Amino acid sequence: MNVRRSAAALAATVVLGAAAPAMATDSPSASPSPALPKGLYGTTDPTYDGVWRQSLALLAQDTVKVRPAASAVDWLTGQQCANGAFAAYRADTAKACDAKVMVDTNSTAAAVQALTALGGHDSVTGKAVTWLKSVQNKDGGWGYTPGGASDTNSTSVVVGALAAAGEKPADVTKDGKSPYDALLALALPCEGDDAGAFAYQPDKKGRLAANADATAAGVLGALGKGLATGPGEKAGADCAKAASPEQAAANGAAYLTRVLDKDGHLVSALPGAEDQPDYGNTADAVVALAAQGGAGAAAKPLGWLKDNAAKWAAQNGPAAYAQLIFAAHATGTDPRAFGGTDLVAKLDATGPAPQKAAEQTADAQEEKDDDSPFGVWWYVGVFLVVGIGIGFLLSHRGKGGRA
Predict the structure, then answer these.
(1) Which UniProt keywords are given for this protein, alphabetically ordered (predicted)?
(2) Which string of DSSP letters, residue by residue, matches 255-286?
(3) Which of 15, 175, 288, 304 has the most C-beta neighbours closer than 10 Å?
(4) Residue 72 in this model has a pLDDT that exceeds 60
């Protein structure tokens, strides 16, 4: 799942066999929004990715133990429709959602993962999970929009949401089919160069085409993991018949390893950009490989990201920084020293100051007051003199002794 599947993604859900497209909405080419809502991360038009980038930003901050600003969390919870679903963005949340509001599974599932991690939002996440269950397809999976054909990416991000919310994805079924049944049906057999990969969706004839982005998502989904996950401990394995989700995950990881072996990065699937590195999908692949086989399994693409991804993230904003933080977290890498970049500080700077930063600012001001010759202890001394009649003021007070 790249920075965001935007309007192009919606079209792709009805074009069977298309790769999960991605559009960097936080890029220089994107049109800036003239009036961004309070609490929103990023500086560009949120129409197609507002909830997604906000969810990733909040989840990434929680992963590195940063408390997001209350306004940022409130913005996200305020985007929910009464039925529990989230759309990519609602400009007017005072107006009830109607048929014109295009809710989607990806925004909803990402919001669930973020808000569950933050805690204290059980009502919001509970309604969202109920809605996700209500739009599950008969094959056990999910499409981007309700009723759309199941795809690997959407099914996997919903699996992550279910797991985060304490559900057992294997027990969430429709007509006897679970999400894992849908993912297994989208896994390629162990034949040829694409052995073990996942497809995004079957084409019109039911054929499966390997898709690296879908494979990274599919590995996490088959493992029952979410967007932010730590390193796994399963050894690599040769491709074998995917008779279980675990084997499908191992097969997918083996495919990603082969694809990444040459250059250490994935390439873009967008028309006209086939020779360009795909930074976001490479970050997703790092998370998938680490979740399957540990940090060592992702060493080569992780090293490539450290050397090359800083400029891309700066151009693409909060979701990009979040993806790199997820890659760092999955491999046990310090996100505050990622190839010379402090990803956490960069992410924090794209939105309202986190609560911790605000508290530090207040503490710094208090320290400044304490150090002043006319600070708080000077006034305490004066009151003591007046109150008990002492004719002199102590010449020195320990600066560390706050009440």
Answers:
(1) Membrane, Repeat, Signal, Transmembrane, Transmembrane helix
(2) HHHHHHTTTSSEE--STT-TTSEEHHHHHHHH
(3) 288
(4) yes
| Cβ atoms of 190 and 240 closer than 8 Å | yes
pTM for the model stands at 0.82
- Output the pLDDT for position 272: 76
Average pLDDT over residues 325-351: 98
Is residue 207 within 8 A of residue 165, CB to CB? The reply is no
Distance from C-alpha of 125 to C-alpha of 108, rounded to nearest angstrom: 9
φ, ψ of residue 316 in degrees (nearest 5): -110, -5
Query: How many whole angstroms separate alpha carbon 87 and alpha carbon 108?
Result: 7
Reduced 3-state DSSP string for 107-121: HHHHHHHHHHHHCCC
Q: CA angle 107-109-111, nearest 5°?
A: 70
Spatial separation of the C-alpha atoms in residues 348 and 321, rounded to whole Å:
9
**Helices (H) and strands (E) in the chain — how many of each?**
15, 4
How far apart are the C-alpha atoms of 82 and 239, rounded to whole Å? 45
3-state secondary structure of 371: helix
Q: What is the largest CA-CA distance in the chain?
A: 97
Q: How far is CA 271 from CA 1, 74, 154, 196, in A?
A: 17, 38, 22, 25
**How far, in Å, CA of 313 to CA of 322, rounded?**
9
The C-alpha atoms of residue 55 and residue 75 are separated, in whole angstroms, by 10
**CB within 8 A of 305, min separation 6: which ones?**
265, 279, 282, 283, 286, 324, 327, 338, 339
Of the candidates 97, 79, 100, the one whose C-alpha atom is nearest the C-alpha of residue 88 is 79
87 vs 107: CA distance, rounded Å: 6
Banded model confidence at residue 400, pLDDT cuts 50, 70, 90: very low
User: Where exactly does CATH 1.50.10.20 map onto the chain?
Assistant: 7-363
CA distances from 56 to 5, 45, 84, 328, 377 (A): 13, 17, 19, 14, 45
